[in-house]
Amino acid sequence: QVQLVESGGGLVQPGGSLRLSCAGSGIIFSTAVMGWYRQAPGKQRELVASMPSVGSIKYADFVKGRFSASRDNAKNTAFLQMNSLKPEDTAVYYCKAGVSRFGNWYEYWGQGTQVTVSS
């Protein structure tokens, strides 16, 4: 069974930092496309960062220069370093893994972790 477990969310003041982690099991990270998404109340889920198995990491414009995504394939873990946080960054943040098996595409999501930026 594929499972993604997220941690690191919480309450932080504007300008502060948080580091999110995504620990996976049941898949090999080196074969997977990893991504971070977020969804605020009443808003559509949006891409934060995409990490292909091969190639450069792509970031949404609203986090460029502030957020940094990374992955450790040997430890089946992905990270999202969040700096200079703003109130508008408040959302549930999700980790996603995409893999190909027998010509079919499968996507797996973590349960999400709440990030609240407020003074």
Topology at a glance:
Blueprint: E1 3-7, E2 10-12, E3 18-25, E4 33-39, E5 46-51, E6 58-59, E7 67-72, E8 77-82, E9 91-101, E10 104-109, E11 113-117
Parallel strand pairs: 2-11
Antiparallel strand pairs: 1-3, 3-8, 4-5, 4-9, 5-6, 7-8, 9-10, 9-11
Q: What structural category arises from helix and sheet content?
A: mainly beta
Helix content: under 10%
Write down the overall geometry: elongated
- Taking all Cα atoms into account, the compactness measure Rg is 14 Å
Give the helix tally.
0
Q: Total number of β-strand segments?
A: 11
The largest β sheet comes out as: 7 strands, mixed
- Work out the strand percent: over 45%
Low-pLDDT residue spans: none
H and E string: EEEEEEEEEEE
Quote the distance from N terminus to C terminus. Answer: 40 Å
Mean pLDDT: 96
Could you characterize the architecture of this molecule?
The structure is a single chain. The protein is mostly beta strands and 119 residues long. It starts with a strand and ends with a strand. It has no helices and 11 strands. It is elongated.
Summed up, what is this model?
This protein is mostly beta strands and 119 residues long.
Could you name the key traits of this structure?
single chain, mainly beta, elongated
